[in-house]
Amino acid sequence: MKMAKRLFIDLEKCRKCETCEAGCSYFYHPFNDGILHLRELAEFAVTCRKCDLAPCVKGCPADALEKQADGVVKRYNLRCVACRTCCFACPFGTILPEVIPYAVSKCDYCIGRLKEDEEPLCVGGCGEGAIAFGEFDPGPKEQRFQIADHLIVHAVPWKKEEFD
Protein backbone atom coordinates (compact mmCIF):
# COMPACT_ATOMS: atom_id res chain seq x y z
CA MET A 1 0.00 0.00 0.00
CA LYS A 2 1.38 3.39 -0.97
CA MET A 3 1.85 5.90 1.82
CA ALA A 4 0.17 9.29 1.55
CA LYS A 5 2.41 12.25 0.84
CA ARG A 6 2.78 14.84 3.59
CA LEU A 7 4.48 18.13 4.19
CA PHE A 8 7.67 17.87 6.20
CA ILE A 9 9.08 20.88 8.03
CA ASP A 10 12.51 20.87 9.62
CA LEU A 11 12.11 23.44 12.39
CA GLU A 12 15.84 23.48 13.06
CA LYS A 13 16.42 24.79 9.51
CA CYS A 14 13.24 26.89 9.45
CA ARG A 15 14.34 28.94 12.45
CA LYS A 16 17.39 30.17 10.56
CA CYS A 17 15.25 32.43 8.37
CA GLU A 18 14.73 36.04 9.35
CA THR A 19 11.72 36.26 7.04
CA CYS A 20 9.90 33.33 5.46
CA GLU A 21 10.16 33.51 1.68
CA ALA A 22 8.13 30.37 1.02
CA GLY A 23 5.13 31.24 -1.10
CA CYS A 24 1.73 29.62 -1.09
CA SER A 25 -0.52 28.83 -4.02
CA TYR A 26 -3.74 28.74 -2.00
CA PHE A 27 -6.04 31.39 -3.46
CA TYR A 28 -7.51 32.46 -0.10
CA HIS A 29 -4.15 33.34 1.49
CA PRO A 30 -4.01 37.13 1.15
CA PHE A 31 -0.38 37.34 2.26
CA ASN A 32 0.89 33.94 1.06
CA ASP A 33 1.87 32.91 4.59
CA GLY A 34 0.25 29.52 5.21
CA ILE A 35 3.61 28.26 6.43
CA LEU A 36 3.38 30.49 9.52
CA HIS A 37 0.29 28.60 10.63
CA LEU A 38 2.14 25.30 10.29
CA ARG A 39 5.11 26.68 12.18
CA GLU A 40 2.86 27.85 15.01
CA LEU A 41 1.31 24.37 15.30
CA ALA A 42 4.76 22.79 15.30
CA GLU A 43 6.28 25.16 17.86
CA PHE A 44 3.38 24.68 20.28
CA ALA A 45 3.40 20.89 19.85
CA VAL A 46 7.14 20.21 19.96
CA THR A 47 9.13 23.18 21.29
CA CYS A 48 6.77 24.49 23.98
CA ARG A 49 7.82 23.38 27.48
CA LYS A 50 4.19 22.66 28.46
CA CYS A 51 4.63 24.46 31.79
CA ASP A 52 2.47 23.28 34.66
CA LEU A 53 1.28 26.82 35.39
CA ALA A 54 1.25 27.96 31.73
CA PRO A 55 2.04 31.68 32.22
CA CYS A 56 1.40 32.31 28.52
CA VAL A 57 -2.20 31.14 28.93
CA LYS A 58 -2.72 33.11 32.15
CA GLY A 59 -1.11 36.22 30.68
CA CYS A 60 -3.31 36.39 27.60
CA PRO A 61 -5.74 39.31 28.04
CA ALA A 62 -8.07 37.96 25.34
CA ASP A 63 -8.36 34.36 26.59
CA ALA A 64 -7.03 33.28 23.21
CA LEU A 65 -4.76 30.52 24.55
CA GLU A 66 -5.82 27.25 26.08
CA LYS A 67 -3.72 24.45 27.50
CA GLN A 68 -5.23 21.23 26.22
CA ALA A 69 -5.37 17.92 28.09
CA ASP A 70 -2.15 16.72 26.39
CA GLY A 71 -0.34 19.88 27.53
CA VAL A 72 -0.17 21.44 24.06
CA VAL A 73 -1.18 25.09 23.93
CA LYS A 74 -3.79 26.02 21.35
CA ARG A 75 -4.40 29.55 20.09
CA TYR A 76 -7.93 30.62 19.18
CA ASN A 77 -7.22 32.91 16.27
CA LEU A 78 -10.53 34.75 16.34
CA ARG A 79 -9.91 35.78 19.96
CA CYS A 80 -6.24 36.68 19.53
CA VAL A 81 -5.52 40.40 19.23
CA ALA A 82 -1.82 39.82 18.41
CA CYS A 83 -0.65 41.75 21.48
CA ARG A 84 2.14 39.16 21.90
CA THR A 85 1.73 39.13 25.68
CA CYS A 86 2.07 35.34 25.49
CA CYS A 87 5.55 35.77 23.97
CA PHE A 88 6.64 37.96 26.88
CA ALA A 89 4.96 35.75 29.49
CA CYS A 90 6.71 32.60 28.30
CA PRO A 91 9.65 32.13 30.69
CA PHE A 92 11.58 30.08 28.12
CA GLY A 93 11.07 32.25 25.03
CA THR A 94 9.56 29.43 23.04
CA ILE A 95 6.58 31.42 21.77
CA LEU A 96 8.11 33.41 18.96
CA PRO A 97 6.48 36.73 18.03
CA GLU A 98 6.88 36.09 14.31
CA VAL A 99 4.67 33.00 14.47
CA ILE A 100 1.79 34.77 16.23
CA PRO A 101 0.28 36.84 13.42
CA TYR A 102 -3.04 38.63 13.76
CA ALA A 103 -4.36 37.47 10.39
CA VAL A 104 -3.86 33.73 9.96
CA SER A 105 -3.77 31.84 6.69
CA LYS A 106 -4.35 28.19 7.48
CA CYS A 107 -2.56 25.69 5.30
CA ASP A 108 -4.73 23.26 3.33
CA TYR A 109 -1.68 21.06 2.56
CA CYS A 110 -2.60 21.45 -1.13
CA ILE A 111 -4.99 18.52 -0.71
CA GLY A 112 -6.81 17.91 -3.97
CA ARG A 113 -4.97 20.76 -5.71
CA LEU A 114 -1.79 19.03 -6.87
CA LYS A 115 -1.20 16.96 -9.97
CA GLU A 116 0.49 13.55 -9.66
CA ASP A 117 4.14 14.70 -9.74
CA GLU A 118 3.59 18.23 -8.49
CA GLU A 119 4.72 19.54 -5.11
CA PRO A 120 3.42 22.51 -3.08
CA LEU A 121 4.79 25.95 -3.96
CA CYS A 122 6.19 26.41 -0.43
CA VAL A 123 8.62 23.51 -0.94
CA GLY A 124 10.50 25.13 -3.80
CA GLY A 125 10.23 28.60 -2.29
CA CYS A 126 11.98 27.82 0.98
CA GLY A 127 15.52 29.14 0.79
CA GLU A 128 16.72 27.03 3.73
CA GLY A 129 15.38 23.75 2.32
CA ALA A 130 13.32 23.34 5.47
CA ILE A 131 10.14 22.22 3.71
CA ALA A 132 9.73 18.98 1.79
CA PHE A 133 6.83 17.00 0.37
CA GLY A 134 6.83 13.22 0.25
CA GLU A 135 6.30 10.02 2.13
CA PHE A 136 7.48 10.73 5.67
CA ASP A 137 6.82 8.79 8.84
CA PRO A 138 7.11 10.04 12.42
CA GLY A 139 9.83 8.51 14.54
CA PRO A 140 11.35 9.54 17.87
CA LYS A 141 14.80 8.30 16.84
CA GLU A 142 14.83 10.73 13.89
CA GLN A 143 13.08 13.38 16.03
CA ARG A 144 10.16 13.45 13.61
CA PHE A 145 6.73 14.16 15.03
CA GLN A 146 3.31 13.96 13.44
CA ILE A 147 1.60 17.25 14.23
CA ALA A 148 -1.41 16.82 11.91
CA ASP A 149 -2.62 14.20 9.44
CA HIS A 150 -0.62 15.82 6.65
CA LEU A 151 2.29 17.31 8.58
CA ILE A 152 5.49 15.80 9.95
CA VAL A 153 7.93 18.04 11.82
CA HIS A 154 11.58 17.55 12.69
CA ALA A 155 12.68 19.32 15.85
CA VAL A 156 14.80 18.67 18.87
CA PRO A 157 12.11 18.33 21.54
CA TRP A 158 12.44 19.51 25.07
CA LYS A 159 11.79 16.88 27.70
CA LYS A 160 11.04 17.61 31.31
CA GLU A 161 13.52 15.87 33.54
CA GLU A 162 12.25 14.32 36.72
CA PHE A 163 14.46 14.79 39.75
CA ASP A 164 14.43 12.51 42.77
Quick tags:
alpha+beta, 164 residues, two-stranded antiparallel ribbon
What topology does this entry show?
Elements lengths: L5 E5 H4 L19 H14 L7 H5 L5 E3 L5 E3 L9 H5 L31 H5 L5 E4 L9 E5 L2 E4 L10
Parallel strand pairs: 1-6
Antiparallel strand pairs: 1-4, 2-3, 5-6
Briefly characterize the structure.
This protein has helices at 11-14, 34-47, 55-59, 85-89, 121-125; strands at residues 6-10, 65-67, 73-75, 131-134, 144-148, 151-154. The chain has 164 residues and is α+β, with helices and mostly antiparallel strands. The strands form 2 sheets. A 4-stranded mixed beta sheet has the order 4-1-6-5. Strands 2-3 form a two-stranded antiparallel sheet.
